[in-house]
Amino acid sequence: MSIDYKSIGRRIKVARVRLDITQERLAEQVNLSPSHLSNIETGTTKVSLPTLVNLANALHVSVDGLLADSVISSKPVFEKDIQSVLSDCDDYEIRVIADIAAATKKTLRKDAKLKKACNIPG
Predict the structure, then answer these.
(1) Distance between CA atoms of 94 and 87, rounded to whole angstroms?
(2) Residue 66's domain is classified under what CATH number?
(3) pTM for the structure as a whole
(4) How many Å apart are CA 42 and CA 53, to the nearest integer?
(5) Residue 18: which domain range?
């Protein structure tokens, strides 16, 4: 199993932006250089476990939330992400998003059956 450092970095950046914190301020809070934090956010530098924990604490998020793209059982994290996306939607937007989600799910399952029937990997 490989760790998706780009996704981890993206989630760190999203959490930082949501809190309206600059890279410089967050870097100072967790005792990193701003350039090192920038490299973590872009996924060009691997983040250590202690640094990941410090970042999660500073950003008020869970470590599993930051690792969601690298963890096999991450459904609760993505459900929370979806809930966050929907939290400020009006009735019309929620209806359209629900229709899109249902259509996407149907297509994914149909494609999965086709792949299995044709012995296509992935």
Answers:
(1) 9
(2) 1.10.260.40
(3) 0.62
(4) 18
(5) 5-70
